[in-house]
Amino acid sequence: MADLTNARVLMIATDGFENDELFKPRQALIDAGATVTLASIATDPIQGEKAGEKADTIVPDIILGDVDTEEFDALVIPGGVANPDKMRMQGRAVQIVEEFMDDDKVVAAICHGPWLLVEADVVDGRKVTSWPSVRTDLENAGADVVDEQVVVDGKLITSRKPDDIPAFNQAIIEALTEELAEA
Asked: Which of 7, 59, 119, 151 could potentially form a cystine with 34 if both were Cys, beta carbons 3.0 to 4.6 Å apart?
């Protein structure tokens, strides 16, 4: 099992996140030893969804405005339709994505999460995947879009849907393991 004891991972989400796409990667990273911080628009509990129904809630650790990307090794963006749509309207959320990409850190987005990558204008020339309804937006932003359970392009990791979470988690853990070995 990977030892991510020194890894610091930021997740960004708000109401409407896909339940499993937040909780399962978060738990996999915690189980591997990483410290995971959840940032959102406010520190009020945020509401997850599963199959269009309300699911679990979680209390964010910090607000987006308090995020210092220098303190983190990786960024994870869960999907859900409403979550990334709301987050891409938050200037600081978009800046966070830009900063992680500019610093060549691990960035992982699943399902509708790549909408934030489009908004941050960081997918031009990159190989990615996503939920089918996001693919045209990715193509229009210059991405090479494929239909695979997980796509790794450098330190950018993307997946399509909840069924892909095991492969998504494994790719994040492997990328972080490599990142920590290089540090």
From this structure: 7
Quote the mean pLDDT of the chain.
96
Separation CA 170–CA 13 (nearest Å):
21
SS3 (DSSP) at 156: strand
Fold of 8-182: Rossmann fold (3.40.50)
What is the value of pTM for the model shown?
0.97
So where are the chain's domains?
8-182
Could you say which of 26, 86, 112, 126 is catalytic? Answer: 112
Query: Does residue 112 carry a catalytic annotation?
Result: yes
Task: Tell me which of 12, 77, 93, 111 is the catalytic residue.
Answer: 111
134: DSSP letter: G
Burial state string for 18-48 with b = 16 or more CB within 10 A and e = fewer than 16: bbbbbbbbbebbeebebbbbbbbbeeeebbb
